[in-house]
Every structure is written in C-alpha cells, then in structure tokens.
Amino acid sequence: TDAHLKAMEAARVLNAYVLETPDQARVMAQAADAKLAKGEGGWLGGVPLGIKDLFATKGVRTTACSKILGNFVPPYESTVTAQLWRDGAVMLGKLNNDEFAMGSANETSFFGPVVNPWRREGSDVNLVPGGSSGGSASAVAAGLCLGATATDTGGSIRQPAAFAGIVGMKPTYGRCSRWGTVAFASSLDQAGPIARTVRDTAILMRSMAGYDPKDSTSVDRAVPDYEAAIGKSVKGMKIGIPKEYRIDGMPAEIEKLWSEGAAQLKAAGAELVDVSLPHTKYALPAYYIVAPAEASSNLARYDGVRYGLRVPGRSISDMYENTRAEGFGAEVRRRVMIGTYVLSAGYYDAYYLRAQKVRTLIKRDFEECFAGGIHAILTPATPSAAFGIGEKGGADPIEMYLNDIFTVTVNMAGLPGIAVPAGKDVQGLPLGLQLIGRPFDEETLFSLGETIE
Ligand code: GLN
Fold first, then answer.
1. First vs last C-alpha separation in the chain
2. What is the pLDDT of residues 297-344, one digit of tens each?
3. Known catalytic residue: 132?
4. Which numbered atom of ligand 1 lies nearest the CA of 103?
5. Whose CA, among 144, 148, 176, 238, lies 20 to 30 Å from 8?
6. Active-site residue among 52, 94, 170, 392?
7. Thinking of the domain 1-453, which architecture would CATH place it in?
8. Would you say the CB of residue 291 lies under 6 angstroms from ligand 1?
9. Catalytic-residue membership of 186
10. Any idea which GO molecular function terms this record carries (predicted)?
11. pTM of the entire structure?
C-alpha cells in the first residue's frame, strides 16, 4: 500500500485518480495485516486497488466524474466494492472515468482527460487510455494499483484494457451486482475487473461476482473459483472466427494480430471454425439508440434536489433547467437529447422499438453460434491502438462511437468478454484481442485468454 501511494504521488500527471484516500488506505492495510497475522485475512488480504468513481463508496466522495454530483458522499457502499473489502482488499482512491461512463477516450470527465502511460516510439505526444474506464486502465498499467474495478456498457472495460496493454473482463450480464454503481444504461451495464494479468483478473472477479438480492437482474448462481481456470487445457475447444468482424479498411496490423492469436490457440489444441454473425453491422447504431434511451431515463434523477449541484432559478423548473445545463457536460447532454427523442411519442416505434428488435437478432446470432458447438469467439478488441488526446471525435462524435465497433455486440447480447494483450503496433503501442463466451462461462475465457497473453 505504501509503495503504491508513493507511486500515485509521483504519477499525478496521468490524472488517473480523481481522489486519493491515503489515510483510509493505511487503516485498511493495517486491519488486513492484523487479520493476516491471525490467519484470518481473505484471499485479497492487503491487496491495494483503485476504484472507478462510478462505484458508491461509503463516506468517500463519488461523482461519476460529473459536475452534477458535486461533492456527493454516499451513505452506502456498492455491493461489488463491499465484497472486495470483505475479502481484505485496500482502497487507494477513486479513479477517473468518462462522465457517467459515456465515452471511449476518458475525455468527457469533469476532472479532465487521463494520460495513457504508453507512448509511440520516439514521440512525446500524450495518448488517451481509452474509456470510459480510462483511470482504471492507466493506473493499472502504470503500477498505481494492483488492480481496479471498472464498468462496461459498450466496451468500457475491454477497450481501455486493450489500449493500455493489460487485461479486462466484462462478465455476463447479471454476474456482478449493479447495486450502488451509478447507472448509465441499466440493461447493458456490468461491473468487472481490470488487472495486469489474466490470473489477477480472475482472482478479483471471484470477489466481485455473486448474487445480490438488491439488484433484481443479478443472477443466483454459485461463483466458481475463476483462478482454477488458469492453466487449464484448451484442447478440443472450438473457437469461432466471425467474418463480419473483418471490417472495411481494417489496418493490416490488426488483421495480423488476429490471425496470430488464432494460430496461438490452434497451437494449444483448439479448433478454429469460420462463423457468421450476420447482424453485427447493426449493433453500433442500435447501441447508440438503446444506451442513450436508458441514460435519459436514468439521468432524470439529477434534478438539483436529490444530489450534489443546485443552480437556483426563478421557479422550480428554472432550477431544474439551470442545474442540468450547468451540471452535465456536452456528451451527456447529447445523449439525454438523443435518448429523449427516440423514446418520444411518434418516434418510439421507429427508433427505440426497432433497436430492441435488432438487439434480439444480434443475441440470436450468438445463440446459434454457441448451439453449433462453438465455445468462444475470437475478435480484435479495438479497430486501432491508442490515439492522441484531442485527436478524435471533436467535430464528429460518430468518429469516437466507431471505436466500439467490436465491443458493443457483447453488451447487446449480455455475454461475457475478455480483452487480453496480444501484440504491438508498428509504433510500439499495445494491441488487444477479445474473446467472447457463452453466458456464465467466464472460466473458458480465462483459460483461453491466458493461452494468448
Ligand atoms: N464508449 C461507449 C459509450 O460511450 C461505451 C461506454 C461504456 O461502456 N461505459 O457509450
């Protein structure tokens, strides 16, 4: 814990933490030590972690990196973090993220952008760590925590993990409780771990997962010992290679990474099978209807009355308007407007309902694939390596949305997905591959992921 607190201080230029909690960390570490001395420490006894600022932490400021939450201090703890503390982990602080987890570059945070510790060879240009869990990825990659919590609505665990050369697991929808996690799009949101190795990710996941009666979409299934999946043979497993992920204009280095990853799995005894997921091309447009629709509804609670910021006005509706206009950043306002529009009378059928139907088709594509005997699907994690801060999405938000092309399908179908580092681009930046699994079969993804890593 002390070593990490020192490293955090020395690396503040990365802007990975929005709040450091050194006093709390030392108290937690001492308590963990005392327990360990008595032979009682949990399996995370004394392990220092960073917590994405989307997780409510009792008595510790939680803002989702939005001005509208101001100095909100929750009187409760999220289930996921409570389970980590139960098993002995130590909190180092709260990590930066895109405002309300909306973004792919950690550039929409009220606290400013996060810097990726990686740089292009021979360049001093600061790169994004990806988003929305950019603080988690940057902190783990730079050694500012041993692991971090993150959330993934359309790729926010996997894409930053890939951009920072580390591992991120987005569990099956329902595997981790959403209780006490700031809601973005409730039917897509899922918490999961980011860490430096597949094994570390599996160890964290065991604590984070589990049924929670406080979340009606949490699933009552025993939590396996994910670490036991590490080192398990992948011989005879069928790995689907979906042709729809070979998108137009895909860089040669991503193609190469993908075929090398496939070759590695083959060398380990897995069988490669060409598969088709025909509705893939509709996933991104459908996601950018469903996610803003749910966001517009979830964010209605920030009204200047219940939480954080209040900007007065002449009437109560003026107060609502002023608070929301000042409290939400540009990307959040855009999503609220899109979401309200697609849910409004007259447009609901044309946009929202249709997007939900497309979502079902995407899910069925995967179901058919798995019913045909496929154990997991291998794809690239991102269409490129990390890009420069301010380089993308300025005038055209769609340029940024395109980053999620390989990851959003997984959330639409509620499936588990892992991103593992698999190579470097020509400029020496890390690139990741993604493995998509059957529902509640994270173990297979850990086994396969470790084979590639
Ligand atoms: N980049 C996607 C978005 O902006 C996904 C974000 C996320 O997974 N939280 O919606």
1. 27
2. 999 999 999 999 999 999 999 999 999 999 999 999 999 999 999 999
3. yes
4. 4
5. 176
6. 52
7. Alpha-Beta Complex (3.90)
8. yes
9. no
10. ATP binding; glutaminyl-tRNA synthase (glutamine-hydrolyzing) activity; transferase activity
11. 0.98
